[in-house]
Fold these 4 entries.
Entry 1:
Amino acid sequence: MIVEYAWIIPLLPAIAFILIILFGKDRKEGGGYIAVSLIGTSMILSLLTIAEVVLTGKGYESTGINWLGIKGFQFGLLVDQLSSVMLFVVSVIGFVIVVYSLGYMKGDHDVQRYYAEMSLFIASMLALVISSNLVLFFIAWELVGLSSYLLIGFWYRKPSAASAAKKAFLVTRVGDIMLLAGIIILYINLGTANIRELFVLAPHANVGMLTLATLLIFGGAAGKSAQFPLHVWLPDAMEGPTTVSALIHAATMVTAGIFLVARVYPLFTSESLMVVAWIGGITALMAAAMAVVMTDIKRVIAYSTISHLGFMTVALGVGGYFAGIFHLFNHSFFKALLFLCAGAVIHATHTQDIRDMGGLWKKMPITGTAFFIGAWSLSGFPPWSGFWSKDAILDKVYAYNPVLFAIIAGAVILSAVYIFRLFIIVFMGKEGKATKHAHEVSRVMTTPLIALSIGALFSGFLVFFGFKSFLMKSLPENFAGALEKVSVTSAGAHEYVTYLSIFLVALGIVAVWAVYSLKIVEARSIRHTFSPIHTILINKFYIDHMYLFISKKVIWDMGIIVNGIDEYFVDGTVNGIGKLSIAFGEKLRKLQTGVVQDYAAWVLFGTGIILIIFKVKGGMI
């Protein structure tokens, strides 16, 4: 069975990481071909493994090794239907991005380090998705975080890049602490960290304990998947190379959080899922609103990612297990496509400011067409892939809560607005000052765009080929059956939601076309009319300001107080006792003169004192 050798899948990129560090410096491309060949081989093995799972209809679990001989710490493989979907996303999208990098990173003086870190990133994520134990999962999770830190700060000589890397590392650490706490609670109460064993024990466990543990686990997911209020690191992560942004947003870092929730989904209670749903809804709407006002091409797409991660999160929260993972699958194609198109645009124009762009479709027809396909798919207009998963999410949310549905409907409209605003400004209209000398990028960069465009066009049609029934097999049978009965809409309501979804997308596109292409209303006048709202959005709801205030004023001032207590009270007490002892010793030392007569005098003095006491007490001492 090929699936038994799935451990080789993450091993190959890990070997690439080692080989590039050792020998990449001697190669002209910095080890790029080593990365492409070994990651490509890993992808082929992943596809063969997936094919076996699809054909047999069964997953595979190995007991592996028992780490430190501790019960419940068996480190093995879990390759089921959910793992298969993630293996496809990580290996295929990762391989395409690394191939694209051969053109994009050409000439960079640190290219060896780039390919080494990219290989480590992909290896860590592949290990994560096939882990059978939450402890092994956490180890891989931390390696994913380390890799993202290294790659976000790849151009570390830029202060903004170094700052963005530290910000990402610190914010996601908050989530990581919560995740670790959740794992510890599960282990203490259930006696194991093996995922399948937890599924068996969960129905008989204390509901309050499961609610607390899963909320903490979701906290870890919220950190990695940039959910409110831990979303602030992801827009700044654009300081790294655009290929890194594509990998983080489409296949690795941020999808890890969504995968985590899906991986332990049967452990969640109705109370913890409610929190998941509302956090996802708030994130989807807030991020979509911020994307509308951004002028950096990468930041627009970054906020788009946060919003669509919110879509996936809300889907999981309302019982839409399939809808959430299906959207993750489709999103990986069109988001990688949009980021790589943005990379091509930046490569050609040497700027990220969309106000300096315009008319690029004529000069970059392949990139422009690819971006157009990605934009339609992201907006969720039929028949592009994003429509099918977005429609499934809306269907579930509609049956769950009308207020939450209204929030998600608002995010749907804004999705169409921000992505077509970006498309029209960058690729349509008059030529911008940064686009005069722009030209289409090399074939090594356009070929991945074409491949991803095909995925963005057709991945959604998997829904007609048993994708749902395949994915649901990754859940325990009884749980999957019960889940199918949650948040179910009638046939009439489903039809209504579908038509409403199409209408909302069309409304957003028409509004953008009227403002940015036909110029019926000037964008400047809209900004002026809604100036207070624009100010709030451009300042990202002042959440970053709040964190800075807390860190600089509250935490810093508390640190000064604590330092004062430590320095003057704790150290003062200890040092005071020490100084007193030294002073007493100095005085006492003067009695030790070394003169026999002095010692005899003290003996007589002491004897006299004893006799006096004896006399006073009447002869009794």
Note: The longest helix spans residues 543-589.
Entry 2:
Amino acid sequence: MTFTVKIHPGEMEIDAEEGHTLLDVVIRSGLFIESICSGRGLCGRCIVSVQSGASSPLEAEEKILGKEATTAGLRLACVTKVATDMEISVPADTIRLAGVAELSPVPERTSFPLSSIEEGNYVFKVGESRVFLGRVPDPVCGVALDAGTTTIESLLVDMKDGSIKAESRELNRQISIGTDIISRISYGIKSDGNREILRKALFRSIEKSLSDLFRFAGVKRENVVALAISGNVFIMHSLLGKSLTGLAKFPFSPPLTDTLLLSDSLPLPVHGSGCIILYPAPGAFVGGDLVAGAISLSLDVEGTPAVFVDIGTNTEILIRKGDRWIVTSAPSGGAFEGAEMKCGKLAIPGAVTNCEYDTEIVLQVIGGGEPDGISGSGIVSLVCLLLSIKVMTPDGRILSPAEARGLVPPSVLWRLSEIDGENAFLLYLPERGGRPVYLGQGDVRNFQTAKGAIRAGLETALAELDLAPEDVESVYVSGAFGRGVDEEALIVTGIFPPGFRGKVIKAGNTALSGAYLSLVMREAMMRAEDFSGKVSVLHLGGNRLFSEKFIEHMNF
């Protein structure tokens, strides 16, 4: 049976089959709603207000929201099912992100890709290809865009001199479906309809980012002759509308090699004669974002031993030794993106990003104010802290209050507790009730699994090139996670080996830098295509050394 759900704001009416959750309905409406547990009723963030048609709250809802809130009509969208016509309100999309991440250093250009053949007529050169643009109104612009799992970051670029005219940073609205890639793939392969919902969410995110750029700079789509996009393999499959099945099971999807599309190939605001540039992906789980990063850091040219790491659901790893390159992807899960953690949160306002101890615990919170969750970098920082003050044992066990008495600083003893039957460490306890922010024993186990996979992936890839960690001269860490995490925390927690100490470089948004280069340096895409074809892809599934290293590095 089909019912109607009226949604505020927007006065939208969505038809929904009986038994569908309100989270499904809100996602189909196009509105953003935060949900980092992939609809499992754990994170408590997908709160909606039900004005009519509310069913009795579930026990899990009352536990998370409180009886007073559920009596007032608040519900968790992921567990509330449609059983009649309903009217609901979704919190306004008011999340504001900080500016675009710092770019990695840009190599000196040797050839500019835009040229004028006569007044007002232009040709844009991408690698060996030429795109005749015809007449383009001033200013002639391009857009560099990093389509990330969590955020969409973009730059509006003056194509005549390479200057940046505007920047934008938006949430990727696919987050409402799942914060990590694995949960999105699982959702998308259930039906073509689900796959299209994912695609539309991505397009809405990109369109919002571009509209902000246009508004800030006072330009129109007719001014944009090229849109350069970098992203991981899932993002590119979603963008192009490709089947996601090959990302979920063997045989895995082949590399993505199409790097130049006409502007009408995708429904994006680009000049009618313009083009869309995509970075090639060398493997099923090693994406164009890694290739773009390698180009931006000049890691595609021969050089001393270096490591490039982009930590996420699938942690992408590049190792260079002379004229040889190994790329691989370690299955690190969603722990570093806030998923799989009881109080995990995206790196948005309210998230703890760093923890320190002097005589008391000091928290760094995005936006200041009270914390309501812990970001990926915050979890690494917290685990490092707990190990240093002996609250956590080397095998990852959080001490009980009785065990810790006399062993840990008295000022943190009160933070040791038992929550939902497991030992936990409290970070923040609201004065007027509400949900505490804490790290539980199960969270630590999830963290150990994730960090063990990354460390094992690194050491397995290094071994392929007969390198020890001590042989490496530079270790580049990219992305938002890399920007927020401390080198010592990476080493103390065992994510990185001790041999990397003093070598870690926070590289900024290398994927966005690579996209920018493809707009202002003709040879960027020639280098990208050449590099994508010559790297060796190491598959960790079934690799004996990876399995041994994974078990070895589970403990701290």
Note: The chain has a mean pLDDT of 88.
Entry 3:
Amino acid sequence: MLAIFISAAKPRVLKLATYLCRDWLRAVLLAILAVTVHAPALQGERIWDDAYLAHDSPFIKSPLLILEAFRHYLFLDSFSFHYRPVQNISFIVDYFFWNTDAYGFHLTNLLLHAASGVLLYFLLRQLFASLFLRRVSIVVRARALRRLPWISLAAFFVALIWAVHPVHSAAVDYISGRADSLAFLFASAGWLLFLRAQRATRPLIRGWLYFLAAASGLFALFSREIACVWIALFVAHLLFVEKNLRARARIGALFCCGLVIAIYVACRQLPERRPSPPSDEAIGSGSVRAALMARALGDYGRLLIFPTNLHMERTVFDPIGYRSHVDWRKEIGVEYLSILGLAVLAALVFGSARRGRGQLMRIFGASWFLAGYLPVSNIVPLNATVAEHWLYLPSVGFLIFLAGCAVELPSRHRKLAVALALLAVAGLSVRSHIRSADWVTAETFYRRTFAAGGTSARNGVNLGLIYADRGDYAEAEKIFRKVLEIAPDYPIAQNDLASALSGQGKTKEAEVLFALVEKSSMQTRKEYPRTWIGALNLTRMRHSVHDDGSALAILEAARKDYPDVWELISFESEILRKTQGPDAAQRLVENFARDNWWHYGAALALGRLYAQKGDVDLADAALRHASWLDVHDTEALRLIVLMRLRQNRLDEAFRTQRRAVARQPDEPRQYILLSDILEKMGRGAEAHAALAKASQLRALVAAQPIAN
């Protein structure tokens, strides 16, 4: 009976195996798993840089700013030289469709990662075939893949393990981390388009494919700087692996790579020049850098094999360990990472040197891994010594190397290798799912980061701000004081401590601290960004006690040191408007708005000033300009409506308010204002309908807490 059951089941198993060999099904499985393991992050809040990049940044609020994104670095007020206009453009798309809903931003991250995994599978099929079938053309290799299913199977498992690996959490679950997946997506797409062009028979189609491949490579560079490594890998493969490529195609590809890099370098000259970030003298020596390179390699190897202790703000350097021999002995544990790093390097070298069927695959994988590792190895100064998301590209090479080792196994052990790979996929998927849950709330994230070892000053400040935002100033004060024990000169922590003290009514102590931040800003600005915040908060305290003369003096001095900071100009102009009238404030705002046409806040403030002066035409132009710079905000439209009502131009007021309703269809106040306009126009029934809609929305909002 059992034999009959087994014989009957065999055709079904074979049919299932046949289905699993189909590329489309593997692509679907890759996408589903990649999204599923990171699904908890879909409910996540904005964390860390997300608050600026995916919410506050003025460059994401309108499609009109797409080209402007190429004229600025990623952060406006920072030491970083991150030039990533495509990342900003992706946020423009998210903001356009999702407004400020973080779910949509997270969903885009997951889809980008899933798409990258699918493209990686198709790319590795071609690359693995080029390693094992070096003497045949690309066209023949494409046909040979059908008769050598193990090549596609190896590519599938590498892509699958890569897609579910938890070390990529910071690149997928963190909205601001999407630069890695954007660069990966465009670079792998460009490589695939180039390979597809080799099989095209019609010159026109081949030309378009080459053009799209070059454009994808350029978009990859505009997404993240690591795309330079992708180009290096492509060129190396072109020169040392592709033996049957026509000389014309090879030279053309090299020329296009050079042209793409030249365009990228030229575009990087568009942003205004910034002062170089401060260098850490403690890690400037060659011996220390060599040690950090070994430690980083050890940490990365450990994370790729056993991704247990995952957290942001990783480091493999503690300056305390270099003060004396006693301190060095206390920090001896970190030196084990150096030994592990040397062991990883030895394994890569030994595996690449060992002859066998998978040698070329191992050499290719080791080269890929080391090419991706070197730029982030501490060979040059970066903003951290290690970071998990920096493994997004190098991890592919590491997995290729392991696949090259598995290829050497005897045929009788290959089923065991497949079983182990499936077990790895299951274990890594569970770990990814757990890690993804760390990003659900900001408090959960910062607390778990602390527990895992990410005890940096920035992490402490962010945790303290959560308590301050909820009004628990006493607890926030404790955290900020602990941060200042670690970093006594950290101006952001000093400023936040002063704010927490002010919230508890300790105004004198807070003012002294704000004054200290403002006084030391000339020195601290060389080491930290946003050091103007102390001056701003000090003037707010002076303004709150009606000492506007002192407040204006502080702001004027601060503006000389920080001429392009809108927060300072905005507050100074507001004080001037209240104390001296709109004419006194107009010059400040006009100058800033002229130099920064893209700034929504400046255009809105200028429109308010013109309206207060009674200059309707200028106010209308400024407010309309502001309304184009933010496709979801309605304040500029509201001010235009109020001007039209005062002029009794009801039809224009009605049309403008309809635009506001379209932008915020779930906001009751928009329907109330629309109802007022309709009432003035004598359209009573429509006015009552608008009021009924507002009442309905208010009832829904009131019912939400009960439902929860």
Note: The chain has 34 helices and no strands.
Entry 4:
Amino acid sequence: MSDDAQDGSAGARVGQTTQPSGFASIDRTTFFVSAAFIGVVALIGVLFTEQLADVSSSALTWVTNTFGWLFILTATGFVVFALILAFGKYGNIPLSQEGEKPEFSTPSWIAMMFSAGMGIGLMFFGVYEPVSHLAAPPPFVDTEAGSPEAAHHAMAYTFFHWGVHPWAIYAVVGLAIAYSTHRMGRANLVSSAFEGFFRGRRRTPAATKIVDIFAIIATQFGTATSLGFGALQIAAGIALLQTGQITGEASVSTAIVVILVLTSGAAVSAASGVGKGIRYLSNTNMIAAGVLLLFVFVAGPTVFILDLVPAGIGAYVSNFLEMSLRSSVFGGTEWLASWTIFYWAWWVSWAPYVGTFIAKISRGRSIREFVVGALFTPTAVGVIWFSVFGGTGIDLQRNGVDVAGTGSEEEAFFVALGELPLSTVSTVVAVVLISIFFITSADSGGVVLGTLSTRGSEEPWKPIVVFWVFLSGAVAAVLLLIGGLVVVLSRTVLGGATGPDLITVLKRTGMLELAFGVALGLVLWLG
């Protein structure tokens, strides 16, 4: 019998044992250490606001400037690795045992994956990023701001930052965990992907707990970032609906109230489980997003958008390799650190959260189906989304509406909607949509954190899930109080700044698990 089969059979036997329930299900070391660390960071933020803001900003600058080259190579490496897994000899391997069927329908699977992966981000940057690149092209692009050529590069870089690269990171990490959990019969933990490294040698429980602790910390700050984005944008929408004007800056106090209210809704959703609250809300999200997308497409510059789709895809594809390997060796350091390297650091730091969640919902799918679904479907949706909303913003910018001049990511979306018919109705729909994205991000994050802190339980103890949901909201509120978006993002990138020593894991492991483990180890180390 092969090692794979032996390991899988053993895992299946282990999985059939009775799991502790209630408070006894908690891995106390993992839970209390990670919760204490997160709580201490939040407390420091309250007591030493300016100092933590300065340290976080400086540390973020140092990480992106010093390790930018590594983030660039790693992100591109994930794309190559994901494609090899999907279309190589491993593609037909099922992420299950005994011919299990997928737990969720393909539409629900994609909707949940998409909502957890970057739903709020698409609303937050959907208009702002393309318009920003149009108004201020990258320094290594020889074109005039606002020109048609600048618009081509604006769409190319937007597709690049939200396309196959981030989803390749998510797909590889998620696949590592899904393969370990559903194929090998292990617990649904990030550390389970490292089990193969201990084959034939003494396993160190402390090492696996450290991996899960760092995964929890990275997940917590990643979730807080998403909630911070959503709360700021909802606050901007509420202010617009109340005053009828763009204020230029979202109210942090309103954003914190939004966090308190929506976190309560997220706790209820999370407590109902993945198969109910998260699935239903994700499906609702996709329908509402589709309605808003169709409205903007019809009410906006329809022909311009249709022309922009092939032009943007062409610019993305033709410049793909150059953008993928672009470094600051000959200039553009500040721009790359603010955009590409920052995005890669953000996606890497968020990968344990998204990877664990999509692994949890992907039982029964093949490696090829998993990678293709996680890599190309969200990328295609992102291309359509940015073409419609970003294209509308670009058209407005080139026709005299200074969308980029708002200087505010959270308000640019509403500026674009304000130039279309039925702007009040569309703004209300957008606020509701962002609110649902907020809830799905918070509750899926709570489920992941609950799973990681209860030894990989398929149905984590509901009070612990609710605890993590509320802690995510509290951390987001504290980070907004500290200094707004910059600090929220810097804590995300720095949230899991240490990881396992990769040199020690290169021995005595199967090739597929080795590849998974190295990729996942890079995520934890870079995150």
Note: The mean pLDDT is 81.
